[in-house]
Amino acid sequence: MGQLDDKVTIITGAGTGIGKGMARAFAREGAVLVLASRNQTNLEETAAETRSLGATTLVVPTDVTDEAAVKTLFDHTVQEFGRVDILINNSGAFDGGPLEELALETWLKVLHVNLTGPFLCSREAMRIMKAQGGGRILNVGSISAQMPRMHSVPYTTTKHGIVGLTKAAALEGR
After folding, report:
1. Can 155 be counted among the known catalytic residues?
2. Mind listing the pLDDT tens digit for each residue in 131-152?
3. 92, 111, 155, 157: which one is catalytic?
4. Is residue 174 predicted with pLDDT exceeding 80?
5. Is the pTM of this model over 0.70?
6. SS3 letters for the chain?
């Protein structure tokens, strides 16, 4: 028996990196996984690994910056499993450059993936979790929220923002 047996867990950005690693770890602990990311090929690779570990795994290609796509992600999850126990907001984008040369397009891309995505996913999760009597939302941050790097204004700003989103949402989730 694992610590997360049958906990329905949505992981955004699950196709690579930290998200893929979390999917494997949660699979080993018995979680039911819903893997989300824009890249279906990467998601299918992660799903194959988690299934080989015994996890029930659903793949839902999702752009977390698209409100309709996020709603579809949560609708599919509830239709398939009846609830959402854990949401891990892991999708992320890093881009930057010297502030005086930074394009608005670059700023907005990072802002949308790193802050709008977690907002949209958290909002959907909160609606479901409150109705079912509980759940957990985990937001992946970065040391960049405390120690910025050169030419990282969009990323650093969003990682500060994710701290605020996490704290404010926690107050509402009580």
Report:
1. yes
2. 999 999 999 988 777 788 889 9
3. 155
4. no
5. yes
6. CCCCCCCEEEEECCCCHHHHHHHHHHHHCCCEEEEEECCHHHHHHHHHHHHHCCCCEEEEECCCCCHHHHHHHHHHHHHHHCCCCEEEECCCCCCCCCHHHCCHHHHHHHHHHHHHHHHHHHHHHHHHHHHHCCCEEEECCCHHHCCCCCCCHHHHHHHHHHHHHHHHHHHHCC
